[in-house]
Amino acid sequence: MDMAWSALGLSLKVAGWATALNLALGVGAGFLLARARFPGRDFLDAALTLPMVMPPTVLGYYLLVALGRHGWLGGWLHDAFGINLIFTWQGAVVASTLVAFPLVFKPARAAFEAVDGQLEQAARVLGVSEIGVFFRVTLPLAWRGILAGMLLAFARALGEFGATLMVAGSIPGKTQTLSVAVYEAVQAGQDAVANTLVLITSAVCIVVLVTAGRLAPGRIAGAGGK
Amino acid sequence: MELDIDIRKTLRSGARRFHLDMQLHTRSQRVVIYGPSGSGKSLALKAVAGLARPDDGCIRLGGVTLFDSRAGVDLAPQARKAAYLFQDYALFPHLTVRQNIGFGLAGGWRNPRPGRREEAVDYWLGAFHLEALAHQFPDELSGGQRQRVALARALAARPRALLLDEPFAAIDPALRVRMRGELDELQRRLDVPMVLITHDEDDVAAFGDHVACLRDGRIVDHAEACAAVTEAV
After folding, report:
1. CATH assignment at residue A143
2. Best residue in A115, A118, A125, A141 to probe B by mutation, most B CBs within 10 Å?
3. So what's the ipTM on this one?
């Protein structure tokens, strides 16, 4: 049982970090693509949505290649800061962040596009700075859509398996998250442990989905199949 | 108020083109730009507020150059201090009446909190008889109340001039006469310069100390504008 709770704790920690990172990345990218006009915008949108449709193992492989000691990013991180992400819980955070990113980015872009531009103009003529307009008008009006996306991203990060396993491995108490622990338990024939882990995971996911549904009615139906 | 407008702007939408080329020079406190919809009056007002950028020309208001394409001057809307009253008022739906009115008074990244009392906001709540509605949200208000809130919000920011985009179009006709009277009285009391755009002859009669008539993006005489408005209806 100890192992179940430590796996849950790790999963929540990884999903929490992934969601926090996606708040910044997804909202930033969503705002940029909703407002900026530049060549290649559609291509960038497609590229940023890719993690939603690609198999997590493929994403995991990309990450492994990029973040490994001999990868361009991993080599730089190691030489410049002495950081190694492979087989660490921080590596699991990177994998979960990537996989869950489109779930924040997509609703954020849609929410920003739905904000009435006239309200932002009204704020400007009242003398409020551009950054003030964003934090006082645009963001509050888009917030519900963004929050619903963040909860979905949290649920998705919590259930992340493929990419996490490739990048962080399955070290009990260190990088073994709930979904990875379920796989290991079944492989080892520990049915009782698997049952407990599965029930815990289901309960947490239901709580997240119900919360997301309360925040933005009608949004879950559209995102649930992905 | 000294208001000098001399601007040109071409808009393209598919095969259609619209060309605005207008000159307006006035020292009057109450200016009306009159014309049918599609005559370019909204574009002209937006250019004064800094919400639309002319292709070339210049705009001066009260001795300040707001826009001058030759000198490379194009003040941001924030720096023009020209209050703009949108046709459907553009009240912030997530803020209370009190927060809406105090919006331009609060600097920084955060909205004033709903419970925060400020003398200037109290003054404008009182001036427009909105005290009882201070904690309501815009979608709980009637058309006339919304207009009062929008006016209070615009005036609280202490603007150099008040720009009004069809201020009575969204109000039912029975209320229009009264709201016109309120605006008339208010403008005289505060002596704030105003520019109003309209396609309603009654607005011209009530506020048109100086009247500029627009048709197809050009200044025309009053009779021609009248004919165009009648045609459009």
Report:
1. 1.10.3720.10
2. A125
3. 0.90
